[in-house]
Amino acid sequence: QVQLVESGGGLVRVGGSLRLSCAASGRTLSSYAMGWFRQAPGKEREFVAAISWSGSNTYYEDSVKGRFTISRDNAKNTVYLQMNSLKPEDAAVYYCARKVLSLGWYSPQSYDLWGQGTQVTVSS
User: What is the pLDDT of residues 28-40, one digit of tens each?
Assistant: First the structure.
């Protein structure tokens, strides 16, 4: 049974950068599309970005386009989220997830396995 573990979260200043990692244990992730979601206190879980199994196709929520980049290294069994020009509204717990169903890239219901989350805090 594969497990996902996010890391790389922390405190960063407005306009700063942070790179999140999602590492898998167990079965390789190479055959799966992957996504990043985030959840701020009192809010619903929100789609951030997704990437196809090969890395050829990527998808982003409008508010992060041009600032965030999702990528993957299948040889390392790891997915990344590079976050630049961070804003206070980016503060949240970030989760990676494995996509298995064709219910839409933006739908949490398309994903069957989730990590524990990593906290991102943006300060001025």
Answer: 777 899 999 999 9
